[in-house]
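Input.
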Amino acid sequence: MASAVLPSGSLCAAAAAAAAPPGLRLRLRLLLLLLSAAALIPTGDGQNLITEDVTVVEGEVATISCRVKNSDDSVIQLLNPNRQTIYFRDFRPLKDSRFQLVNFSNSELRVSLTNVSISDEGRYFCQLYTDPPQEIYTTITVLVPPRNLMIDIQKDTAVEGEEIEVNCTAMASKPATTIRWFKGNKELTGKSEVEEWSDMYTVTSQLMLTVGKEDDGVPVICLVDHPAVKDMQTQRYLEVQYKPQVHIQLTYPPQGLTREGDTLELTCEAIGKPQPVMVNWVRLDDDLPQHAVVSGSNLLINNLNKTDNGTYRCEASNVVGTAHSDYTLYVYDSRAGEDNSIRAVDHAVIGGVVAVVVFAMLCLLIILGRYFARHKGTYFTHEAKGADDAADADTAIINAEGGQNNSEEKKEYFI
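Output.
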């Protein structure tokens, strides 16, 4: 670096700085550095300042870099949005200890700012002491994730078929948050409103949802889409009440064939929310048989007879509604199953006999066919004997064995 002799005013400033109080001494030292830099300023026509904008999440570290192309040892200075000097070369006049020198050379001044807050946002200036001086600025943008994420359901417990309102609020973010809704794995669409306060944004999204019994226990998820945060979400589980679902199970007889004298046992299965505490057995168009026994969800009828025929209904209810399931009973004769078995055996025997007869007839037809085919060929062979040496067709017929010459020999007389 080129050396220079300080002007007399600079010498006086240096002497004053040495004798000044500590608070004033720092300012006088900065003035001395400026005077020294002014004495060394070259023309600097070929120099260029370079910097980039910085985006940082609140609470993290922002790094500002002032770089010089074609450096000739000119002085680099960094200023805050209020145009206060943060660093002059490698000297920090500003008392904010969050600013720390990362790198200093003739071609770069790099400074870090820790624990960034929204108040640090703005333009920071890089200056180069040339003739004329050069200046560019870099913008620090601070991202603020939502302070809080809350989800609220209009009713803690809903009834199937009912429409409920669900709200999700993301408070105090920058920029404004985008809220997405999910029911289980299915994405839904809500309606959002944005409120701005002191450069911060609060977003509330409303979702209208019609619930069914299949939604009971399914999570409703409010998910935040924001550049300052990933995977930020909250959820509430739906609680849906629904009327019972009823099913009648035939417990006995296991084969399902109800005959006279047998026992019938039916079980009523009912599921609902809230769970039905009682089921009721009735017989449509008639009373239950006197020998029928109802025990909880079971219906037992001993010694079945045909007067027990009919439709039996199981009813279950809760605070949401009532549902039922029907079973139709038909009592068969006591030997109904056995008769069916005998008929099945008879049919099998008859089928086997028919198959054997058909097979025997086919074999007989094949044998007769071959027999007639063989004798028919022999007849034509004898008829043709003697015809080979005949001069013409008439002679061949006369000479043929069995022709007119032999007709008298084959005459038969009937008395």
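The radius of gyration is 55 Å.
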